[in-house]
Amino acid sequence: MIVLEKKSLRLDIISVDEDDYNIITNDLNGYNNVDLQHTQNSIYFYYIAKCNITNDLLGSIKGCINTHHHCLWIQNISISNNVARQYYGTELFFNTVDLIRNDYNIEKILLTILDKNSSAIKFWKSLDFTKIHSFVKNVKNNKVYASVYEKTISKVINYE
């Protein structure tokens, strides 16, 4: 687990362990990406985002770092519906990348999006992610169609 913290423009980004992450984010009323990708031999991170002023929980992000391939895999990002479409997700994403990229020499960022999730596709494309692969996976006897998106680190800039 990574033990880092960061204050951004509006958020306090706090590192928590996996058990605390699951308990804390269970009540987060927002959009959740579905975890489809799990990477072996990686360093996992779990962050929650609280408002700098009110201390309210506004979002969370988790993923893993593959140090061998120098990539960051975003597995889940969630923002409270109360603050949706107010750029908190963007702020959380860019500040999380900023926390991690230099310590682990990250060259690219990957994530998986369900093909039917048009709002997530729109969000990640607005951050210059590009679709690089599509696949079908059987989940509980249902076919799930999803795609992998990628962004090179040279395209990532600081949000602040």
TrEMBL record:
Query: Looking at the Swiss-Prot or TrEMBL record, what is one Pfam family this protein matches?
Result: Acetyltransf_1
Does Transferase appear among the keywords? yes
Q: What region holds the N-acetyltransferase domain?
A: 38-129
What would you give as a GO molecular function for this chain, any one? acyltransferase activity, transferring groups other than amino-acyl groups
Which keywords does this Swiss-Prot/TrEMBL entry list? Transferase
Task: Name the domain of life this protein comes from.
Answer: Bacteria
Name the chain's protein: Acetyltransferase (GNAT) family protein
Q: Which organism is it from?
A: Natranaerovirga pectinivora
